[in-house]
Write a structure and sequence with these properties.
The termini are far apart. Strand 1 (about 150-155) and strand 2 (about 160) form a beta hairpin. The protein has helices spanning about 10-45, 50-60, 60-80, 80-90, 90-110, 120-150, 170-195, 200-230, 260-265, 270-290, 290-315, 340-365, 370-375, and strands spanning about 150-155, 160, 235, 255, 315-320, 330. The longest helix has about 35 residues, at about 10-45. Helix content is about 70%, strand content about 5%. By secondary structure, the chain is mainly alpha-helical. The chain is built from 13 helices and 6 strands.
Length: about 375
């Protein structure tokens, strides 16, 4: 037996679908609070010392957290090459906006305190706000467009043609999903600030976190209703070959009724949206009660539930096409080869636990609060 045949092709495809979700959730629960903190910077900190306190809550960890984004891009490229080709070319301007905003973050961190001028530092504070808010919004907008279907098509040689525009991405449902993303990550960032600071900054962040958790509940519910009433979804109408070639054009797809069908067929999938709501509700009550660690953990559960809801609702679709539904990318027809997925899985099994262990060690070493006195004394803080 050839080694990679130890795991069947259909199982490997599902494993990599799950791993893609794990990577996206890993990015959201780690770098997500960095984005939330950046978004909150101008609002929870009133003077320069307080802003430096907020910045230093994420200063030692934001670079490591951002590795999850790079890992996600690499995983899509290697495991789902057609998904990579469509998304990174079709969403080109959106990706450029995200990269521009993310580039502002390290520049803002490094240059903000180089000059002791209030105007200079205020400009970089707003740059850090853009570096947090814009990616949070556009990631959500992208998910909203994926749920509706992306305007791409394939010719008989599987060449990709994208028929959409950047402003076409900014439709009402996608913007609603963007607001869900912003509220969710602001909730998460506020929980992190409360955990890592004390005094007025923590009190302001707690109040913002309470509002953000309520907005997360409301917007997530509105998103579900809008999905039911106005989007519907897609469904495969031809027999599915789970070990077939990676050619999306070999199936037939029609619109309507797709995104909620999985919950009828597999009621256990309701765990995902339930986790989204329960996590946000518990985050609100834990914030009210002053339970710092509980607030952060429940916000992580909410993020897990919201992102997982998108995945289980769409399964087996990964990226549906709104102009040619037959060209929609699914788990069974858009992956790399059997051998490629197996080799990637072996590498992941070896190195992902090492990454997780190292990350946990870093957080343990850097545990503790950032206080104003340490900032004034310049005792070991980076920014």
């Amino acid at each position: 037996m050839i080694l990679h045949e130890l795991i069947s092709y259909d199982i490997l495809r599902v494993i990599w679908w799950v791993l893609l979700g794990v990577i996206l959730i890993g990015f959201a629960v780690t770098d997500g609070f960095d984005l939330g903190v950046g978004t909150l910077l101008p609002f929870v900190a009133r003077d320069d010392i307080e802003r430096r306190v907020v910045i230093n809550t994420i200063g030692p960890v934001w670079e490591g957290n951002q590795v999850w984004l790079i890992l996600g891009g690499g995983a899509i490229f290697a495991a789902w090459p057609q998904l990579y080709a469509v998304s990174f070319s079709g969403f080109y301007l959106a990706m450029f906006a995200i990269l521009f905003a993310l580039i502002l973050r390290p520049v803002g961190f490094k240059y903000r305190s180089k000059i002791e001028d209030p105007g200079w530092r205020a400009c970089w504070d707003w740059a850090l706000f853009i570096g947090g808010f814009v990616p949070a919004l556009i990631f959500g907008v992208a998910i909203g467009n994926v749920l509706q279907g992306v305007p791409f098509r394939l010719n008989d040689e599987l060449r990709i043609f994208y028929d959409g525009t950047f402003f076409g991405l900014l439709n009402p449902f996608a913007l609603l999903c963007g607001l869900v993303s912003v509220a969710m990550l602001v909730m998460h960032g506020a929980a992190w600030i409360v955990l890592k600071t004390e005094g007025p900054v923590a009190r302001r962040a707690r109040r913002v976190g309470e509002v953000a958790s309520l907005l997360t509940i409301l917007l997530f519910a509105l998103g579900g209703v809008a999905l039911w009433l106005f989007v519907g979804g897609y469904r495969i109408t031809s027999p599915i070959d789970m070990v077939g070639p990676s050619n999306p054009l070999l199936k037939t797809v029609e619109r309507g009724g797709g995104w909620f069908a999985n919950y009828s067929a597999h009621p256990w999938m309701m765990i995902a949206p339930a986790a989204g709501f329960i996590g946000a509700i518990a985050c609100y009550f834990n914030a009210k009660a002053g339970r710092e660690i509980g607030t952060l953990l429940w916000s992580k559960l909410s993020i897990f539930g919201i992102i997982a809801t998108v995945g289980v609702s769409m399964f087996p679709f990964i990226l549906p096409s709104s102009v040619d539904p037959r060209a929609s990318l699914a788990v069974w027809d858009a992956s790399s080869s059997h051998l490629t997925l197996f080799i990637m899985l072996v590498v992941t099994v070896i190195f992902l636990p090492i990454i997780l262990a190292y990350t946990a060690w870093v957080y343990r070493v850097l545990w503790g609060k950032v206080d104003e006195q340490a900032i004034r004394d310049e005792s070991g803080h980076a920014y």
